[in-house]
């Protein structure tokens, strides 16, 4: 299903940045810590403006228009955010936020701000987002993961996140405004988790509604040219019905900024079409790929596997070097973040389970 954009790729990032700062902050806050403050000194340029926008919403108690700078044209961006709650249910580790603006089906899914500095703590076992309107965690459904039978983290929060520094597990229901969507994430670790989702494409617009994922951040954003190896392992099981794709979502040259490049690697495609147009085919990592690219509002590149596969070890450096060789990004480009998850458009209005039983990222 062709994904039709509603606004510019980076024009929609602003509101997700505000929500992501709140979700990331909550995921790193101990249960029962009381009042939570977002540390402004831990945010890069642009993040400060987003926090100011979030604070305006919290103080105003309603809808605030947040002006953020740095669009490709240098113009101001407006992000409308409402009903922002910092925190979750008692003992929760994630926050809630609802956006009141159109989203782009093919725009960045994650828009992650660099995380707070790691604190000395044990894994967040037993912490969960509010998985029901009343705030009580939901029990795992009968049809879940074969290995994750006793999840340490459960959330139905729109932006529920579990901090396992340098990895994060993220419910990321970024595009649900105006649609009927339910989604609960169950995680035993960053490499062993599953999600149960229910949504449809009755509107026929092919809109991506969620991108539940596990991802690794690279705080120092190393230069790709300085790396001898970037590899990742993954394994997933998907239902084979509905509209979705299982995919890597990788950020180069910053994370969801006006100068960033978003690189997607689609390993299993169920009725989806990337943004942009086909610019070629290539064999990388022993597999054949169709390459899509869009520069309409940012730099977006997607490698779509010509034959689906559900697990493997990926030589990500080969993809980065190919992109540099094509002249699509500069030779001094940097690596910011690697995500793997599922972009969901529809489950045909029935609960569907997507399981992820392996995920690692290593760079040297």
Task: Give the key terms.
single chain; 364 residues; mainly beta; Jelly Rolls; nine-stranded mixed β-sheet; six-stranded antiparallel β-sheet; 3 helices; 18 strands; globular; disordered N terminus
Note the overall shape: globular
- For this structure, the CATH topology of the domain at 104-116 and 124-363 is Jelly Rolls
CATH superfamily of the domain at 104-116 and 124-363: Glycoside hydrolase family 11/12, catalytic domain
The topology string of helices and strands comes to HHEEEEEEEEEEEEEEEEHEE
Named at the architecture level, the CATH assignment of the domain at 104-116 and 124-363 is Sandwich
What value does the Rg take, in angstroms?
19 Å
Q: Treating each run of at least 4 consecutive H or I residues as one helix, how many helices?
A: 3
**Helix share bin:** 10-25%
What proportion of the residues form beta strands (DSSP E)? Answer: 35-45%
Counted beta strands: 18
Low-confidence stretches: 1-22, 29-138
The main sheet orders its strands as 5-6-9-17-11-12-15-14-13
Q: What structural class do helix, strand and pairing data support?
A: mainly beta
The top level CATH class name of the domain at 104-116 and 124-363:
Mainly Beta
Report the biggest beta sheet as strand number plus sense, adding barrel if it closes: 9 strands, mixed
Distance between the first and last residues' Cα = 38 Å
Average of the residue pLDDT scores:
73
